[in-house]
Design goal:
71 residues; mainly alpha; two-stranded antiparallel ribbon; 3 helices
Length: 71
């Protein structure tokens, strides 16, 4: 999933970078990822409930966005 970067903030550790994105950009990126997989959020959510993902990409997307958006 790709997102537009609104802000980069450094943490206490030199090698850690925190990327902050807007809610709209996050939702848009999640929707684009779903579109690329040919899934709706409801279908992805069902796959998660069943523990049976259509692909490793679908599983990775669920790990990234599961329960965080309302699409």
């Amino acid at each position: 999933m790709s997102v537009t970067i609104d802000e980069r903030a450094m943490t206490d550790h030199e090698d850690d970078i925190v990327v902050v994105v807007s809610d709209a950009d996050y939702r848009d990126a999640a929707q684009r990822s779903l579109d690329e997989l040919g899934l709706t959020y409801a279908e992805l959510e069902e796959q998660a409930r069943e523990g049976n993902f259509a692909s490793s990409q679908a599983h990775a997307l669920w790990v990234s966005i599961g329960g965080t958006v309302d699409l």
